[in-house]
Amino acid sequence: MRSARGAALLVVVAVLAAVGIVFLARLGGNDTNNDTSKAPASDTGGAGGEDGKSVQAAPPPAGAVTLLGDGSTSVSGVQPKQMPIEKLKPGETPPQFVVFSWDGVGEDNQKLFSHFRQVAKDVDATMTMFLSGIYVVPPEKRALYHAPHHGIGESDIGFLDDDEVHDTIEQLGLAWQEGHEIGTHFNGHFCGPTGVGTWTPADWVNETEQAVKFVQTWKTNTGFSDLPALPFDYQKELIGGRAPCLEGQKALLDAAPQLGFRYDSSGGGGRQVWPKQVNGVWDLPLQSLPFPGHAFQVLSMDYNIMVNQGNTVKGDPANYPAWEKQAYETFMNGFDRAYNGNRAPLIIGNHFESWNGGIYMKAVEKTMRTVCVQDGVRCVSFRQLVDWIDAQDPDVVAKLQGLGVGEKTDWASFWKAPAPVPVPAPAPAAPAAPAAYLPDVPPAVKSTT
């Protein structure tokens, strides 16, 4: 396990701390598996430019950082790079929100966490990072994790090695300072007959509390002395997440109010419509998107596209160009249908992976660079999305919810129409074959190149 990285570095850190500069933690990792936070977003501020894009907020004044617990986390002021939250004005067209979300998030030798942070900077995007809590726990401390209905230290995803844990913590801090949301992918990623689909609401509370504690105590658990505190209070930062394999959502939604969650993204096969609430929590599922060359639609995630392209992470390289193009066009089909129609938020999920030569990472990067720079588009985190929806007049939200998938909308007429009579939200849809969110790829393929 790492300790201090040398006397010279310690001296530099001490001097910088004395003048109130907060170092950002190294964070990152890989989730080889498939695929929740708390209290309302207070301090989501930050000035916005005239074009509605976010701009960097002023850093907190020197000495404003308050360490929490063992110093693993802190209160460091308003999160930078948050978009302005404003009500739609009569006659306005809603923004086209696009949420890029990542399951597991760790920084391994692929360096994809840091890479996509840079892509987001390039296109003025913020994203949601769903952290697997055990990714900040060193492997020799795996016995700290007591999964519901499983053995001590048991997990269906591997623990990261010490260097990867170190780098993941660093990336988490840097990401938050750049405006990205840190959600949860929970911990052990148990799927199937004995997995999270069998859990009770109490089990989900237990699992989530452990995920939070791991983040709050990484300094104690790792012994790292060369990283600063994470710049956020995870109890307040955490307002939502995504369940492993998209299983167990009903019990999770029952637990969500107790956890303080404001949204959940554990559903699959969602229609591209404006979201509704279940148990007072915004249901923001992965969505079914038109899949080029097929009559069916595919779930808006790299894993499901891969499965429907041959169910292999090491396919024939001759297929890679066509598969990459198909993945990109899938995401763009979903974008175009919403952007030119009902403007429903587009939800895209991914993992930091290199399946089939990294073609899915190339496809999602190309999508980000294509859509996030277009007029009226805001590439945001789930936190920012629900902040915006919660700020709108209920009648306006109800009218948006009444628009069908891809419905061509005359926005001038939209504002003149009366709000529809509210109807209860339907139960979250289960993923439909063949676009289902299937069992995880074995951990052995997580670092394939």
Helices, strands, pairings?
Layout: H1 7-18, E1 66-68, E2 73-75, E3 96-104, H2 112-123, E4 128-131, H3 162-177, E5 181-184, H4 201-216, H5 218-222, H6 234-237, H7 249-259, E6 263-264, E7 277-278, E8 281-283, E9 288-290, E10 297-299, H8 302-308, H9 320-339, E11 346-350, H10 359-371, E12 377-380, H11 382-391, H12 394-401, H13 411-416
Parallel strand pairs: 3-4, 3-11, 3-12, 4-5, 6-8
Antiparallel strand pairs: 1-2, 7-8, 9-10
Helix pairs in contact: 4-7, 9-10
List keywords for this structure.
12 strands; disordered C terminus; 13 helices; globular; five-stranded parallel β-sheet; TIM Barrel; three-stranded mixed β-sheet; alpha/beta; 449 residues; disordered N terminus
Question: Explain this structure to me?
Answer:
- It is a single chain.
- The chain has one domain: TIM Barrel, CATH 3.20.20.
- 31% of the residues lie in helices and 10% in strands.
- Helix 9 runs parallel beside helix 10.
- The N terminus and C terminus are likely disordered.
Offer a concise description of the structure.
It is built from 13 helices and 12 strands. It has 449 residues and is of the alpha/beta class.
Q: Which outline best applies?
A: globular
Report the uncertain regions: 1-60, 431-449
| Strand-residue proportion | 5-15%
Number of helices: 13
**pLDDT averaged residue by residue:** 85
Total domain count: 1
Give the SSE order as H and E letters: HEEEHEHEHHHHEEEEEHHEHEHHH
CATH superfamily: Glycoside hydrolase/deacetylase
